[in-house]
Amino acid sequence: VALLQEKGITDKHVLDAIKKIPRHLFLNSSFEDYAYQDKAFPIGAGQTISQPWVVAKMTEALIENKIPKTVLEIGTGPGYQTAVLASLGIQVFTVERIDELLRTARPRFRQLKLNELIRSKHDDGNLGWAENGPFDAILLTCAAPALVDPLLMQLADPGVFISPVGTDANKQILVRIEKRDGVISEHDLGSVSFVPLLPGVM
Ligand code: SAH
Fold this sequence. Notes:
single chain; 202 residues; alpha/beta; 7-stranded mixed β-sheet; two-stranded antiparallel ribbon; 6 helices; globular; binds S-adenosyl-L-homocysteine
């Protein structure tokens, strides 16, 4: 938490949420000792757990004006970001295309007693989760070549959509989209590096 504060994270809700969720539970045992470093690590299936600063930054951008009641997260991965959101009392709907990762993440949600706030499904996140929308906020935790339209359509009004955009890992931008009174506005939050949002085939 001190490291995140040094790196510019100021939102008290975010810092408290990070403090509450033990990140070592979300890593394979070989990386457990490094869990509190501000680094991304492999989690299997060619995927990674995001760097804590990225999780904090995205969460901060998501709750900037008001903590949303519902969030759709695409890319559950190890479930760390999901747990951070749920610890803020948010009802989280999370979609992951690699079943093995979801099967590893779910027991962690139960262990932290956050399972009632989290609904997860194995599916292609490009489609969102229409039957539970519209969502107060949407968080994409992998990079898309451009804004994903079906997701934008599942965003409530008012609503906030946080998305890494770009195909080249060194040239991705984190974008914050706000929908208000039918008008979409866009702000860049700086450069990031995410694994790609994979295409629809499961
Ligand atoms: N939220 C994570 C990081 C996720 S890594 C954290 O807490 O650190 C990105 C995840 O997006 C990977 O698990 C990857 O499998 C998933 N992903 C990629 N393409 C996807 C798609 N089309 N639908 C759902 N999940 C996808």
